[in-house]
Amino acid sequence: MKHSRYLWILLGIITLIYTATLVTIRLENPKSIQKTTYTRWQEAYVINQTKERAFVNTSNNRRKPVALSEGQGYGLCITAWAGEKGWAQEKDYRHLLNYYLAHRDTVKSHRNHLMAWRQASKKGKWTSQANSATDGDLFIAASLRSAAKVWPQHASYYRQLEQKVCADILHYEYNPQTRSLTVGDWATADSKYYRLMRTSDVAPSFFDQFYQLSHDRRWRTVKNGMLDHLLTLSKQHKTGLVPDFAWVGRHSAKPVRPNAVAGKNDGNYSANACRVPMMLADCKDPRAQKVLTKMMKFFAHRQYVTAGYRLNSKQLNHYQSDSFSAPIFYAVSANRGRGYDNLFESQKHIFAKPLTKHNYYDATLTTIAALKGMR
């Protein structure tokens, strides 16, 4: 009897230990995935140009590196978020920041705080191409807010620099007629592209952040205008899908035609628009939620999400792509319980294999999804 009692006590202790172990594994596994993903991304895509400068290689070839302002913006954000978890040091962030500062754009002989959109090695010489790209500038500015929180000893410097970047975005990349950001400082008032909007530049959480810093009411105008345009585009098709690019007026928006900007998929849900779920993920504005919910319901009814769609639902490809799945995972993770939770499970495939070292875009969006989407 006494022996039996001790046996039950022992079994109870073993059960408690087993249960505690399972809970610990379940809690630690996301953290392990996050750290492993960040470390692999950093090792594969961040290149030290000098002792004090580093850039994100977007070419998928370390022998022929290419830096883009978009990639640098992503890299700065990722590094600041990793720093918050103790996996990156401030010097890692500062090296990326120094590269951006050394490659700022120039308009009419005036050097501003936007980043020149592309640098590459040509015949052994590092060259920089003029003009900015708004998506990169938005992420660069947003990263500075994160850096100020993670490394408070230099918060004043980061906030001042963020204010300068934000001011130049409004000065060079804003069209008050359409209430929207343009696609870059090259899309000026005398250009036909002045009315062009990149749907993945609709970043309401960033706009709120920039308004809180500057109290410049134009950020509220930008947020309202661009969300209005995105909602208009969403309503035009049962799928809720939006195009990579759209022509916008003050109260109008329509998809561009093929090859209007960058290629045949300019008017489809393709390599730019795939980021829209990620950009809306943390926004509680009813317009953002309407766009996101409609889009997620479309994806939730697919057998699997493929790499791009026409706005009427026709697949552009028959294969899956992490750069399409990662933003969806992030969005669903931030909005659980809204009727499309099956996507949370189905899009986990992006973490079922080691992070690719040969596709910058897939790897970077997956890293963002890991750091910000695993909650």
Describe this structure in words.
- It is a single chain.
- About 3% of the residues have low confidence.
- The protein is 50% helix and 13% strand.
- With 375 residues, the chain is an alpha+beta fold.
- Strands 3, 4, 5 and 6 form a 4-stranded antiparallel beta sheet that branches.
- It contains 12 helices and 11 strands.
- The longest helix has 44 residues.
- α6 packs antiparallel against α7.
Round the Cα radius of gyration to an integer and report it: 22 Å
How far do the termini sit from each other?
A: 48 Å
Main sheet, how many strands, which sense, barrel?
Answer: 4 strands, antiparallel
Shape: globular
Instruction: Please count the helical segments.
Output: 12
Share in β-strands: 5-15%
Number of strands: 11
The percent range for helix content is 40-55%
Give the tags:
alpha+beta; globular; four-stranded antiparallel beta sheet; single chain; 11 strands
List the helices and strands and how they pair.
Elements (H helix, E strand, L loop, with lengths): L1 H44 E3 L5 E3 L9 E3 H16 L5 H13 L1 E4 L2 E13 L2 E8 L1 H17 L4 H18 L1 E2 L4 E2 L14 E3 L5 H11 L3 H18 L9 E4 L4 E3 L20 H5 L5 H15 L21 H13 L7 H5 L13 H14 L2
Antiparallel strand pairs: 1-2, 3-5, 4-5, 5-6, 7-8, 9-10, 10-11
Helix pairs in contact: 1-12, 2-3, 2-4, 2-12, 4-5, 6-7, 7-9, 10-12
